[in-house]
Amino acid sequence: MKKRIPIGIEFYKEMIDKDYYYIDKTLLIKEILDSGAKVSLLTRPRRFGKTLAVTMLKDFFEDERDSNGNKIDNSRYFKEKKISDCGDVYLSKQGRYPIINLTLKSANQPDYEMTYGVLKKSIIEEFGRHFYILQGQMLREDEIQKFQEILKGEAKPDDYATALAFLSQCLKKYHNSNVVILIDEYDVPLENAYFRGFYHQIVDFIRSLFESVLKTNNALEFAVITGCLRISKESIFTGLNNLEVVSLLNKNYAEYFGFTSSEVEEMLQYYKLEEKLQELKKWYDGYYFGNTEIYNPWSVINYIKTAFIDFAAFPKPYWSNTSSNSIVKDLIEGANQDTKKEIENLLAGGTIEKLVHEEITYDDIHKSGDNLWNFLFFTGYLKKVGERFEISQLYLEMAIPNQEVHYIYENTISHWFDQKVKAMDRTELYQAVVQGNCLVVETILREQLKKSISFYDAAEQFYHGFLVGMLSGLGEYVLQSNRETGDGRADIIMTPADERQPVMIFELKRAERFTHMEERCQAALAQIEDRHYDAESRDEGYKRFIKYGICFCKKSCMVAAVIESPENKEKNNL
After folding, report:
1. Among the four 134, 181, 227, 478, which has the fewest Cβ within 10 Å?
2. Angle of helix 112-129 relative to helix 188-196, nearest 10 degrees?
3. What are the C-alpha distances in Å from 112 to residues 120, 194, 200?
4. Are residues 276 and 345 in the same domain?
């Protein structure tokens, strides 16, 4: 029987106990000890295994106790793992330290009060996990009273803002050992608060929480913090001089978040899906952490589970469905003409070059175009393909990592365009289309093309979607796309409820050169005739038709039409 595929499994013990397929990342323990850093901030995109890594560190290092203070032995979870071969220098650290483990990933609430409430609850739960220390004789009466007030949720806000520092001192007294601090997804409440409008309130609380426990704390052995972004020391880690930041640009820790090529190939072999490698690579590979090629682990796991059940299943954008993709929306909705050109270049498989700003805040996100591109890079929406230094400044050449992320851009652009079209007054366009006025139709379409963001690698799809969006909601007409009729499929057919109004048939073409547009328009009109796209409508009794041949070329278009009625048949070509 094959091991189960671990979708959504974030706890290391559960991964091992329930025999899920686990890609061994335990050498992260060795690298953290070797680094000697007092406080390490490890930044990676969402769903790249940060929480699983943190729980693995907890289970290795923690001198864990039950509610009665009895020691829990977790050594079995690391037998036959890579860390077990590293020698006594590392294994002597196993089960040695009291741990404070706090995750902030649930603090993405709609307002400050609810966010503070969730953070407070997480702190209370961590105090509850260490309730056993009250049974010892190590704490003073005032410390016991404060501990109990925090645990009951009755302490003052400033007590919760410094609660981790207080807990570390209590744990050191009980265990006679310094404390390891593990904080997971530290920037989730910051990002959420920025987009919700209470950023400065939450920054103040988290700054107090972190500074008190990480700065000049004599109970601290070391700390590991994870998140998506490196936030500037000035905003959160003020005066914290013992902080080592490891971002996507660093070569150390590169293989411990996400899957390497060899790990993916081994997993495919285990589930007998070797034939899927190229498809999986196209969709979910393409990241580089330092110089290490990395696959998106969330998408790989979901893809393998789907393919294991149904070998013929198509790849899906699994990662894009786990977030609102707000940063991409911000980029697209606020894009000026230069930014639109850069987005189109990326979608066409090109690259852009931007100055790197690693220490930024969410407040800085719109202060310059470079900042937003930096956010996209550090959160996984772009990858590094090259770099250069100029006057001590680092410039990155960036591209879209893979097909899945490409889909996110296209889908976000389509939604943005749909919203823009819905807000437009399209009365003039509708009148021109029903009248067969090619000049007005062409003029309006050209204006909107210049304002849009195109993805020319799928140009036919883009232009088709563009025109459907522009024509949707036209009065008493029913719009059908790619409708099978006559001897083929018409691109768009618009059928009126009133048979006295014309049926409108649209055939779209694309030209590489402007000089070919008129020829392609005529070819589109000829296709409507040759394949009898009007046959079904004629059988239903419609007698009036406007047949449009439209050719697109980059941000331009040309419109030609044939108007047919019982009285006449005329061409209106441009």
Report:
1. 478
2. 160
3. 12, 11, 10
4. no
